[in-house]
Write a structure and sequence with these properties.
The protein is built from 3 helices and 5 strands. The chain is an alpha+beta fold. A hairpin with a 5-residue loop joins strand 3 and strand 4.
């Protein structure tokens, strides 16, 4: 099952050396440097271990919030996972349609 991944980070009060270490850190499964993943994304791939890998990386940088976004092959399979200090929260996208409004007919 292919998923398109992208990664963002949020941090406060991290020194330049820590940020450089973070950007040069790699994901254990061979997905490359975190800085490259942030800049270019991963495209579509099979990364079944993403939750375990991201928990591990977030433990190494406990003050950084990692936001991994995914969009799967199936329609509506859109989610974000937040990782901080080895803990995670996953949320699925909610697709909502506006109510019918005859005044908007053109």
């Amino acid at each position: 099952y292919y998923t398109k991944y992208s990664l963002e980070i949020e941090y406060k009060d991290e020194d330049a050396e820590t940020i450089e270490r973070l950007k040069n850190a790699t994901i254990d499964q061979g997905y490359g440097k975190i800085g490259d993943i942030i800049q270019y994304g991963l495209g579509e791939c099979k990364w079944y271990e993403h939750d375990e890998d991201m928990r591990d990386v977030s433990k190494k940088f406990p003050n950084v919030l990692f936001i991994l976004s995914g969009e799967g092959e199936e329609s509506g399979d859109i989610w974000k996972a937040y990782y901080k200090n080895g803990k995670a929260q996953r949320v699925k996208a909610e697709i909502v349609f506006d109510e019918y409004n005859p005044k908007l007919l053109r």
